[in-house]
Each structure stands twice: as structure tokens, then as C-alpha cells.
């Protein structure tokens, strides 16, 4: 029996139900995007693919070196796409439901944590990273410029006035994390007036309503960062209490009272909870670490060297699946070996990247290469940078957790067959050693009325594609297979092909 969670009515969110004024704004912002966008930057796409091709004799490098090369690749392309003092970046790709400007803000907010994590790991030696084109980029100066410009109402790149259910509430959490990670090189270099300006922009989240799901973690992240940086405590404990209401046991959270159990548990809930614990270990470490350990004890069985049984939304965030494993080995009492976490992380990166998961300096909008069937309407050209969430933890904690130095050990599927239940989400997990395949089977249907045609991945109509290009607003079909009634998912991932 699944846990009953009290539900709240879903609010009417403007970008989901645009009126004439919203359509006009979308059209105008799309014109601005067309004016400022730059050519797709694909100079080193093949080079980064080869770095992660374990079958190549030329590019046999360590995991640490692979991650360093990936950050160099990302930083070089980011500088190419960035505009207005690194406050926005117009990446090529399919738009979200939000405006083109919001999509461009994601091009910054979802990249800066990676740059800040790199700076945290390397800043005592150097703040300068060289792109794969060997151009030197001062990461600390880049971050300082972005934060001062983005929070300045008089600057063209101002990140704006936040409102209820605003996508920028989500993005503010990543920006706050980047500010915390880079504190010694960025925040501490600002004057008192500059710090007040930056803090004032972030404090907007304190008065904004959010969707009643994992979104409660975004203002909490901002508030814990502000407390750590300024000493001012505005933490919304009611939001955290609501997050804990979504916890159903076995390490799993439901993504809202009527939401799914899916991979957001890995790259949404536990990624954010890990950072809350890092920012303030006194916040609620007992629950965070216990639930993480409980989750990872079984979730580690999901990983194979060639694929993961993805289910739910946002499959384009696929490279972040191993984030909870890397978080777990950075705790006082890890529930898995560092060698196993390392193998899950490395093989996941290699499998997807050598199949085309990076193009034009960014993670593709799909599972492998771009696939419009798999891009949710809330995802824009840079949304897939959430794929870097496992990388961010690796950069931040790899030296102290032993990730870089430890030898890999086999994954559970590489050791033998297994079969077990996860009662809290009513699912069976089956591993077959001979085929190296892991299958997840849910014991209930999300919808009762379905057919082979309603369960398939729908394609975007040409009329919708034209409208999407004209307005710069997503007009794609919804293809969350869980909500279509698909109950069986395999690491072979053929259901996404």
C-alpha cells in the first residue's frame, strides 16, 4: 500500500496557459534570441567523444582527466554562447514553454555550478582553465562578472524580478550553489554594497510561491546559501517539512502528492538534499544521510556498463543518474564502495557520450543525440546541463572521497543475477548476469485506459514544429512513458529508440 500524501490544487501557471500578452512576449523574446544567437559551436565535439571512448587506443585517460577535459570543453563553448557579461547564453536547440530569455538564463545558471565546482577543486592552484582550443579563461573573474551583472537592475543582463511559479526560482538555486562553491574567490572579493545587491536578488525567493513538488528545494537551497554567506536566517522550514511528507520509504520520494516515482529521485531530490547537507551539516543530516543511504543500497543495482533502466520525465538529464552514488561515498558511513560508485559514474559517462550525448558544447536534448520526442515542454536548449549534476559532485568531493585514486570494482550486474522488490514504489528489480541487463517492473498502471498506440512515443506535428520556431515556445507532445501506462523498463533502453 502506497503512502497517502495530502494534495493541494495545482495552480494556474502562466507559461502553461499563455494569453495574448504572453504570446506577444514570447515572439519578441524569440526575435531577440535570433539577433543575439551565435553559430553552433561544434569544434571539439568529436574530440570529447573520443576522450570518453574506452575502445580508443589513443585516448586512454583516467576518470579525473576525462572530467577535466569535459569541463574544458563546456567552458570553451559557454564563452562562445554567452552574452551580456555572462548573464545569459543562447545555446542552439529546441525551446521550452518559457521565453527565449529564460532559456538563455538556464544557459548560465546550469553551467555556473560546474565552473564553480571546478574552481573549488582547483582554485588554490589556479583560477584559470584552458579550453580545448587552449584559450585561457579566468573562471573566478567570469563568475564575479556574471553575479554582479545578473543582479544589477540597471544591467542589460539583469536576471529580473521574480514572481510566483517562476522558472527563475528553479534557476536561482543553481546560481546560489555556484556562489557558495566559489565563495573564497568570488563572494569574499565583493564589497559590502556588492554583496547586498546580490543577496537582494536572491531574497526574492522568500516571497514567491512554488509548485508543490521538488520545487520546494530550490528556495531552501538559496536560503541556506544566504545564511552561510550573510548569517541571515530566512529558511522556510515549512517547505522542508513538505519535502519530507513526500518521502514514502525505501529512500524514495514522490514528486508531489500525485507525482511519479522516477529518476528525479536521483538528480532532483538527492542532489539538492546533498547540497543542503554540505552547506549546513546541522540542518537535518540524520534524515538526509539515512534516506540517501537507504536509496543507494538498492539503486546501485540499476547501473550497467551499457545503459540504465530510465523511467519518468526529463530523460535528457541522463548523465546525472549516478549523482546519489557519488553523494553516498562522501558521507561518514558509505553504503557502497568507492570503486563501485566510480565504475557506475565512469561507464555512464562513457556509454552516453560516445553515443553522441554532447554536441555543440552542450548535452543533447535526448538520450543519445537530439530526439524531439524525449524533450519535455519545460526543457529548453540548456536544460540538459542538469546532466552535469553527477560531475559537479565528483569535482567537489572527488579528492576527499577517494574517487580519483580508487580502483574500480564490478557493478552488481557484473557479479551475478539478482531479483528484489522495492515495496515503497511497488516495483520489482531484476538483473540478468548473462545479458548484463537490468529491468524495472512497476506493479501498477498510472492510467487505466490505454492501447499500444497510446503507449508509444508520439512525434511532433509539422504544424506544431513551425509554430514552435515562430514563437520560440515548446509545442511538443507529452511523452512521459510512465504516464502513458508503460510499466516495464530495461537498461537496453529500446523503448526510447
UniProtKB/TrEMBL annotation:
Q: Where are the transmembrane segments?
A: none
Q: Fetch the Pfam families from UniProt.
A: DUF2264
InterPro entries given in the database record: DUF2264_N, UCP014753
Q: Which domain of life is it from?
A: Bacteria
Domain DUF2264 intervals: 65-410
Protein name per its UniProtKB record: DUF2264 domain-containing protein
| Species for this entry | Photobacterium chitinilyticum
